[in-house]
Amino acid sequence: MSKERLNRPKIILSTAISLDGQIATLTGDDKLSNAEDWKRVHHLRAKSDAIMVGSGTILADDSKLTVKPEYFKPGYSINNPTRVVISSSGNIPLDARVIAFRPEIPTIIATTSKCPPAQKKNFLREGCEVIICGKGPLVNLKQLMSILFSDFNIRTVLLEGGSKLNGNMLAEKLIDEIHVAIAPVLGGTGKPFFSLPYTVSSFTQPPFFEILENKIIGDMIWLYLRICYESSRMI
Ligand SMILES: NC(=O)c1ccc[n+]([C@@H]2O[C@H](COP(=O)([O-])OP(=O)(O)OC[C@H]3O[C@@H](n4cnc5c(N)ncnc54)[C@H](OP(=O)(O)O)[C@@H]3O)[C@@H](O)[C@H]2O)c1
């Protein structure tokens, strides 16, 4: 285990992207995965202690963030990971499926002191856990990872987007691996894979992504990558 990971979970970012690196179109279409890719996603979810998304993804997709039994052999004992939603303002509808669907599966709302106390009470009443990470403007992601590790015994987190959370998690050097499925379509000026909070001036700028594995699955390419935060690409 690397020194940086001593008090945080292992974090894998999993996503499907278009050939031009978009995770959704401007009008909100994010249906990029084929059937085999959905199977990959659900098997990865089942192996994780937590699935994490940003509030933008919940507001756009109303995701349930559960594991679907149809992707497993009959009789397989399915683990449904804890669901973690990041929202500094706490602006998540109480009837969002991540809260209301299968309430016996734990959901954590990770927020800041900007979240109104009444909304915090609402989350608790609906059975969610609430973690306050800083004063804002955004959730302190390093602090959150350390709390998930030490207080919730979470050792593996599957990050499932969207653009802004992916970008800030990468900028904080919190992502260890990326499992990306590339679809042979274009997304145009939609939602990029990473919305980075800094400018990239050269392709020699770290981080560099080492390819661990690649596969063609139907009409998609899967790339499994390890992130090397301190090194550049050597060509
Ligand atoms: N193709 C795929 O596999 C895939 C997967 C997932 C999502 N998507 C798409 O991605 C899009 C959503 O992406 P998005 O960029 O709009 O939203 P996002 O990354 O899901 O959520 C961003 C929001 O999270 C909250 N937040 C709080 N602290 C944060 C922090 N430290 N860093 C980042 N965010 C923080 C902020 O809202 P608050 O005001 O609530 O704090 C922020 O606006 C949707 O269109 C969805 O369909 C695609």
Topology, element by element:
Layout: E1 10-18, E2 22-24, H1 35-46, E3 50-54, H2 55-61, E4 82-86, H3 97-100, E5 107-111, H4 117-125, E6 129-132, H5 141-152, E7 156-159, H6 163-171, E8 177-183, E9 191-192, E10 208-217, E11 220-228
Parallel strand pairs: 1-7, 1-8, 3-4, 3-7, 4-5, 5-6
Antiparallel strand pairs: 2-9, 8-11, 10-11
Q: Cofactors and ligands present?
A: NADP nicotinamide-adenine-dinucleotide phosphate
- What coarse outline follows from CA principal-axis ratios? globular
Give the distance, in angstroms, between the N- and C-terminal Cα atoms. 28 Å
Number of E-state strands: 11
The top-level CATH class is: Alpha Beta
Q: Find the CATH superfamily.
A: Dihydrofolate Reductase, subunit A
Question: Which bin fits the share of residues in helices?
Answer: 10-25%
Beta content: 25-35%
- The CATH topology assignment is Dihydrofolate Reductase, subunit A
Radius of gyration equals 17 Å
What's the total helix number?
Answer: 6
CATH architecture call: 3-Layer(aba) Sandwich
Tell me the number of structural domains.
1
Which sequence of strands runs across the widest sheet? Answer: 6-5-4-3-7-1-8-11-10
Largest sheet: 9 strands, mixed
Round the mean pLDDT to the nearest integer and report it: 96
- Give the helices and strands as they follow along the chain: EEHEHEHEHEHEHEEEE
Label the structural class: alpha/beta
Low-confidence stretches: none
What does the model show?
The protein is of the alpha/beta class and 235 residues long. It has one domain (3-228): Dihydrofolate Reductase, subunit A, CATH 3.40.430. It has helices at 35-46, 55-61, 97-100, 117-125, 141-152, 163-171; strands spanning 10-18, 22-24, 50-54, 82-86, 107-111, 129-132, 156-159, 177-183, 191-192, 208-217, 220-228. A nine-stranded mixed beta sheet has the order 6-5-4-3-7-1-8-11-10. It has a two-stranded antiparallel sheet with strand order 2-9. Strand 3 (50-54), helix 2 and strand 4 (82-86) form a beta-alpha-beta unit. NADP nicotinamide-adenine-dinucleotide phosphate is lined by residues 15-16, 23-24, 28, 30, 32, 53-57, 60-61, 86-89, 91, 138-139, 141, 160-165, 168, 191, 195.
